[in-house]
Amino acid sequence: MVGCLIWIARHGRYCLIAGLLVGLFVPALSQALRPWVGPLIALLLCVTGIRVGARQALGHLDDLRPALIRIGLLQTGLPLVVVGVLGVFGLLHWPIALAVCLMLAAPSLTGAPNFAIMMGQDPAPGMRLLVLGTALFPLTALPVLLILDPAGGGALSALRLSFGLLVAILCAVGTGFGVRRAFPALSAPRPQGALDGCAALLLAIVVVGLMSAIGPLLRTDPLALVGWLLAALAINIVLVVVTVRLSQARNWDIPVPTAIYAGNRNIALFLIVLPEEVAAPLMIFVGCYQIPMYLTPVLLSRLQRRTASA
Questions:
Q1: Dihedrals φ, ψ of 108, to 5°?
Q2: What domains can you pick out in the chain, each with its CATH number?
Q3: Which of 17, 76, 99, 237 fits as disulfide partner to 140, beta carbons 3.0 to 4.6 Å?
Q4: pLDDT tens, 202-226?
Q5: Contacting residues for 141 by C-beta, under 8 A, at least 6 apart
């Protein structure tokens, strides 16, 4: 079993692609897995917490300031700029505009540290951005939610959502940290490889459930699906590539974890409180956005190789 998980870890990027294909072409399985997405994400966080450990994930006090600056810029500054631009052109009522603004206001994707592992990068900075970004989510997302008010509940709705998410993530990650502390042998290379394989497998299963809205739209209106997919691809690629290039030009640290965070957000968190008429088109965007997100390790690896060769 451990050997099988280690093999999956070595081919983690292709495991993610397999999950995308299953979610796209096996809609019955995708619909069946959709209610389990939340618990699976919590389990993924726990596994990642075991893999990284509290000391490595939280880092030193010197690591907090750059992380907080990134979170402020990416979770508040960037979505407010986009909201302002779309508002000037009168486009905020478009479903795609709402989806993009909410995506930019969301914290890091729960699988971001695992993406870094698949690329041979240190997962600790990604975990730090994930935990801090989610902890600050009630504050960073509040201005955007007050302007858009997607659920019609104002600030109270936004705070309730944020607090629930914070508790769930801290419980899952804290459990992982506790297990790592209780069993120090899990820091050895072989258990670490097994944990990486377990995380890759969980990510592949989660994406199947998140693509539950894609299969029906593919059959009923494939052209509309193409439009949503092209928008998702363009947004993700621009965010990832621009962040990498800017980090390299400015000589900033952790460019890859920052790029993963910039382009891969946990927009699915908003589906918990949004009314069905708002959540339906948003679910289509969530499903389409899984494709570029789960291709991020492949895209970033190639970008790194090109940069190194240049």
A1: -60, 150
A2: 2-304 (1.20.1530.20)
A3: 76
A4: 989 988 988 888 878 888 888 988 9
A5: 75, 76, 79, 105, 106, 158, 162
